Amino acid sequence: MKFDTVIIGGGLAGLACGIRLQNRGFKCAIVSAGQSALHFSSGSFDLLNELPDGTAVANPEKAIHLLDKKHPYAKIGDKFPVYTQEAKQLLLDAGIEVQGDSKRNSYRITPMGTTMPTWLTLTDFTTLETPNEVIGKKILLVNIAGFLDFNTKFVADAFETNGAECKIISVSLPEFEKLRQSPTEMRSANIARVLENENTLNALVAKLKEASKSFDTVALPAVFGLSSNDPVKKIKQLLDIPVHIIPTMPPSVAGIRTQKRLRRVFELAGGFYMLGDSVVNAEIGDGKIYNVYTVNHGDIALYADNFILASGSFFSNGLCASMDGVTEPVFGADVDFDPNRNTWYNASVFGAQRYRTFGVATDDQFRIKINGKVQDNVYAIGSVLSGFDALQEGCGAGVSLLTALYVADHLKK
Ligand SMILES: Cc1cc2nc3c(=O)[nH]c(=O)nc-3n(C[C@H](O)[C@H](O)[C@H](O)COP(=O)(O)OP(=O)(O)OC[C@H]3O[C@@H](n4cnc5c(N)ncnc54)[C@H](O)[C@@H]3O)c2cc1C
Hints:
Blueprint: E1 2-8, H1 12-23, E2 28-32, E3 44-45, H2 60-63, H3 72-76, H4 80-93, E4 98-99, E5 106-109, E6 115-118, E7 120-122, E8 127-128, E9 138-144, H5 152-161, E10 165-171, H6 177-180, H7 188-194, H8 198-211, E11 217-221, H9 230-238, E12 243-246, H10 253-268, E13 272-275, E14 279-284, E15 289-294, E16 302-309, E17 320-322, E18 325-327, E19 335-336, E20 359-360, E21 367-370, E22 373-380, H11 390-394, H12 396-410
Helix pairs in contact: 1-10, 1-12, 4-12
Bound molecules: flavin-adenine dinucleotide.
């Protein structure tokens, strides 16, 4: 099989790159082993919340000049503001409604009820200009009875610390009874499926209306809208008071929707998405890759002019750590890491972790290296890259989207 470009990994980075390339007239295939980080996403896309030394960032566009030259954003350079606009537009064009500004971080509410800075947030969720916005508000915090992945007590404590007054209730509907028979079934995505039924959603809204009469705001878990954000829009429209939709523990309903939408746009643009298949091997020549092999296609090789590695970090097996070091399993690409394992971890679990900055080494065009030799037709994008700590710096989605667009624009037919 022959394509212009084969992309390994169909998460945020692989899909954004594939959409851009299809729109540029390339014929692309994405091979993707399984779920991506989007299935665990908060519903917000971070661009840059902190510098590596812990300094808070209010305006990501201004702060990128302070980053080390190994940071992926440093390679993007002056095109950074252009790509932030285009990344936002790519999401909007895919029907993923987001709000936010790359010149000014806003605040999102976490599953614990605390606030964190971020760039773009799905319009389902509340964004705050400052964490103090809840001061003096009477908030009704509602859970679905039996749903364990939304910790109302933590959320209420955090809201009350920020000056709100909370009451917690749980609501039940006969339609949830089947799910409730097993706690493993009572998960966000299954609840969202039940609430796709308009009558069930209306019944829930009726209960919320009654319960929220003396409150300023209703807060609900993000269990609405696997395919579109219409259920959230409907709830917001039918209740007379503001509604906060709060992210839950995974799986993320809004993240699954984002993944589905991006995949659909890629396929509508003519791309091939091979889900449930893994690239396991490649034929490597002198400074280039000729083809790759996958589990499902056996000895039928996938040929392409260019290959893009978007296989994610440790979480998605794009990187593997062993006692001897850190490796990239598909191409055996060079990885930036410290051979001294003692430097990998920070004893403070919530602190910056050095191992999270490890990743595939690339030249200034994001081309990978094998044994020190740059591979002319193989690029790496997204969280498989080295040089940043997505969690501590709060830059995961930004790096994925911006490197995807940058590389897609630099490929030649
Ligand atoms: C649990 C979690 C939650 C996160 N939440 C957020 C958030 O809320 N906001 C934010 O800004 N950032 C978040 N991040 C950071 C996140 O890394 C980026 O936002 C981004 O989604 C990563 O996208 P990616 O495409 O680079 O990698 P991934 O999403 O990890 O996708 C990589 C894909 O490659 C596939 N793959 C791997 N190896 C192969 C192979 N050999 N063959 C074929 N396919 C392969 C995997 O199955 C996977 O589907 C989160 C990260 C994690 C781990």
